[in-house]
Amino acid sequence: MPTLCFRIKPAFLEPFSNGRGRAAELLQARLGLSATRAKGLVDRAVFGGEEMCVDVPSDELGWRVARELEATARPAKAKAWVERGRLGQDEAFEMAELVGRRVEQMVGIFSAEAPENLVLLYLKADAPPWHRLFLDAGIAFWEDWGRGLENEERDGVVIRDLGAACKLVGEQVSAAAARVSEERGGSTVIELRFASGARVELYFADPSAPDSSVTFSFTRPSPAARAR
Predict the structure, then answer these.
(1) CA dihedral of residues 28, 11, 83, 124 (deg, nearest 10)
(2) What span, in angstroms and rounded, lies between the C-alpha atoms of 178 and 191?
(3) Whole-prediction pTM
(4) Which pLDDT tens digits describe the chain residue by residue (228 residues)?
(5) What phi-psi label fits residue 26: left (phi over 0), alpha (psi between -120 and 50 degrees) or beta?
(6) Phi, psi (5° rounding) for residue 19?
């Protein structure tokens, strides 16, 4: 069952959240849903930040529900998208849909026991808003993760705002891919390049170890190097 998410302006979020009963009435009246089903859909909606997420069936009814919820939130110019899950899982693949987008946020989830070990990289770059990247078992993974950092506040991890630390907010992605790197011992790496010349790379610290930790690398060319 896919998750439909809606971006809602903060000023509209609170009254909409408090108006679950009204939203349920709209679904019941316009879609002919039972009161129980309409209330269940709205009650399962999760509100956080500027987003509302709700699980709906992957059928025509699901899309009708999505359209009605979007219409309900129209004063906030809501936009809906489906959280598509895993988009890539292999030694090498392109992430073409990220190219041309600008970074809104980049967040790294690191192991508390080994602070240099990157567990997950979250990237928010236009809509759909959140992508999740990681390396495991010798290959790369890329997921559409619409709910972002939900449930990442947990023991055993350290959360770092890499977008701010690396000054990548607002940067435009010029290339994004997983590839096999001879420079990294023939292992898979995830690479993001930016129009400014900045580069992010995720790679296995020890390509020969099946349970190797993952290193986050960031480089930016000097002004002199960019001028050449």
Answers:
(1) 180
(2) 6
(3) 0.64
(4) 445 555 444 444 444 455 566 667 766 776 677 888 777 776 666 555 555 565 555 555 666 666 666 555 443 333 444 556 788 999 999 999 899 999 999 999 999 999 999 999 999 987 667 899 999 989 999 998 876 776 666 678 899 999 999 999 999 999 999 999 999 999 999 999 999 999 999 999 999 887 899 999 999 987 766 555
(5) alpha
(6) -105, 35
